[in-house]
Amino acid sequence: QGIRQALAMGADRAVVVDDENLRGSAALVTARVLAAVIEREGADLVITGTESTDGYSGVVPQQLAELLGLPSLTFARKVEWANGALRVERLSPTGYDVVECPLPALVSVTSGAVEPRYPTFKGIMAAKSKPVDQPSAADLGFGAEAVGPSGSGQKIRSVREAPGREAGRKVVDEGEAYLEIVRLLEQLKVI
């Protein structure tokens, strides 16, 4: 469903790697498989999200850039092509930084970076005939020992729920509450 929607929105073709042998693979294995696809297809610009919705590790884009030997422009909130260079506004703790580099490059974008276009009826109909390549891990050169949980050298030993948030502390302001807040911030070594 999502692949056909992307094709309807303007992509020319798709490559989907959905191989049972990849189940349980860690981030590095995921990056290696994606790098193999990108090298096979060729690309001047690789665009990724900042993290997946399953592992939330946020490391695959950087690993992918390293494996491909590309500069990595991360956390882009805005992407432009100007004067022969890729220019991004990169989110930072204090606002954003402007970063530029030539192509080829990899950009990881934040969720608000783009407003996706709506597929037209013509696009939806055309998507049905656009090619969708579905290579297996083996087709990309990965044997069973290189993928899955064993391929990453990592093993999940346990999974547990994150602890719940503790109740906050109320400070009643009778004119001197700022002193209590300063004392609490000093205890936390914030100031």
Describe this protein's structure.
The chain is built from 6 helices and 7 strands. The protein is of the alpha/beta class. Strands 2-6-3-4-5 form a 5-stranded mixed β-sheet. A two-stranded parallel ribbon has the order 1-7. A hairpin with a 2-residue loop joins strand 4 and strand 5. Helix 1 crosses helix 4 and helix 2 packs across helix 3 (about 60-70). The radius of gyration is 22 Å and the shape is extended.
Briefly say what this structure is:
This protein is 28% helix and 21% strand. The protein is α/β, with parallel strands linked by helices.
Beta-strand content: 15-25%
Structural class: alpha/beta
Proportion in helices: 25-40%
Main sheet strand line-up: 2-6-3-4-5
Number of helical stretches of at least 4 residues: 6
What Rg do the Cα atoms give?
A: 22 Å
Mind summarizing the main beta sheet? 5 strands, mixed
N-to-C CA distance: 51 Å
Shape: extended
Uncertain spans, ≥5 residues at pLDDT below 50?
Answer: none
Q: How many E-type strands? A: 7
Kindly state the mean pLDDT as a whole number? 86
| Order of secondary-structure elements | HEHEHEEEEHEHH
Helices and strands, with pairings:
Layout: H1 2-8, E1 14-15, H2 27-41, E2 45-49, H3 60-68, E3 72-82, E4 85-92, E5 95-101, E6 105-109, H4 121-127, E7 132-133, H5 148-152, H6 177-187
Parallel strand pairs: 1-7, 2-6, 3-6
Antiparallel strand pairs: 3-4, 4-5
